[in-house]
Amino acid sequence: MDKYVTRQPIKALKEDRIIGYEVLFEKDYDSIYSSSDVAAADTIAGFLMQNTENIFHDKLTFVTFTPSLLFRNTPKIFDKKKMVIQIEDHVMIHPLSPTIIRRYRSEGYVFAINDFQFSPKYFSMLDFVTYIKIDIRNKRDGQSRTSLDNLINTMQGFDKKCIVTGVNTKEDYELALLIGADYAEGSYVAESMAKKVNRMEFLEGNFFQLVVEVSNDEPDVDRIEEIISHDAALTYALLKIVNSAYFALRRRVSSIRQALVTMGISQLKQWVYLLSFKSDFENNETLEAMMKMSFLRANFAMAISDHIKDLPIIRSEVYMMGMFSTLEHIIDAPLEEILEEIPVAQEIKDALIKKEGICGLLFCLVTSYENADWKNVKILSQQLGVPSGQLSQTYMDCVETVNEIWKGLTSSAEMESDANGTEKAHT
Q1: How many CB atoms lie within 10 A of CB 57?
Q2: Is 23 exposed, middle or buried (CB count within 10 Å of its CB: 0-12, 13-18, 19+)?
Q3: Structural domain tally of the chain?
């Protein structure tokens, strides 16, 4: 049986901030939580213990626990300051639930209720929970909208934090803002996170020249070296990252050419992309999350592509497809217009803009997995010949890779900032 897992960001609606991620599990087409509790508990516990470092990183992690997991004390394996225990119907109706939940609460654990309803069994748990999760899909009009408003107002009156889920469109997001919810979760949340930058700022200067060069089928290292050598800030930043702990070199690199050879084209692409927005994301958590998403899409798509026959683009182009897929949410211009300015393969343009061709299927598989659209994941995996049983671990391996990339890239950016500050202080 295939099992899947992904993470979805949860955004504070009144601030530009990601408060955490929900870990979503699925087993084939049906929810893993619909299977026997013991089987679900075994699957979830095993996966969480194998991927603790990947999942419980720097934000709150929301995980739905079955009764069996709670009775086994599985949540106690993890840092209670970084985890929110989510509960559903099958927990609330269990006769021993109040006792076990009361014990967890006394030890400092935080709870959330999934898909909260106006019902006695839900209200009986209010004393134990901090977060209320409410699905807002198809609730924009009529009685559904009135009930939604009443539920949000009532829960906030009980001093509960309301997370609206199913925020998959711009209209859903606007509704979440209008009803005064505290947080939002859904596929549109990730797309609405970033502060857009001016198109011309993106396309001007040394950065764009670097993008052009590293995007070519056969990048010209001499040309790349020349572009970087003409920019003191680029040179400084490049040497800083190559000599950082991320690369763990025995000898310090002192030339641009050595740095480029050490880093390699794939790492250079990541570094160039990050550097282009560095000044914007320093105080913008949601832009940071969007850029991490682009890295994750790039790595995940590239890993999946190894299993696809007759793919018309090479691995580095698959990587760029994932990386550039978020640009329209960061840059103030349509994606079609942005891609016209960058020398990428037509197959990439067709995949990102029209969702066409084998590359389009690959991109749709990546985004379907990202959005926990498990039924579509199964269909697309079969069409592409991708072993769906490996997707879960491949995804989490990519999460770990992105965390390491981000740590290395941002540590070099911080060193650059510190050095610039020291230099200014001495002048």
Answers
A1: 15
A2: buried
A3: 2
pLDDT at 373 over 60: yes
Residue 184: which domain range?
3-191
**Number of neighbours of residue 39 by Cβ within 10 angstroms:** 14
Question: Which residue's entry shows tokens 């939604």?
Answer: 148
pLDDT digits (tens, 9 = 90+) for 209-260: 777 787 676 788 898 888 877 666 567 667 777 877 667 677 777 788 888 8
Of 173, 191, 209, the domain-final residue: 191
Predicted pLDDT at 185: 93
Q: Which residues of 217-236 are buried (b: 16+ CB within 10 A; e: fewer)?
A: eebeeeebbebbeebeebbb
Instruction: Locate all alpha helices (DSSP H) within 158-283, ordered by sequence.
Output: 170-178, 187-191, 199-203, 205-215, 221-229, 232-242, 256-276, 278-281
Residues 223 and 271 in one domain: yes
Q: How far apart are CA 300 and CA 405, in angstroms?
A: 14
Do 289 and 272 meet the contact criterion of CB atoms below 8 Å apart?
Answer: no
Mark whether 299 and 259 lie in a shared domain: yes
pLDDT tens per residue across span 21-34: 888 876 543 444 44
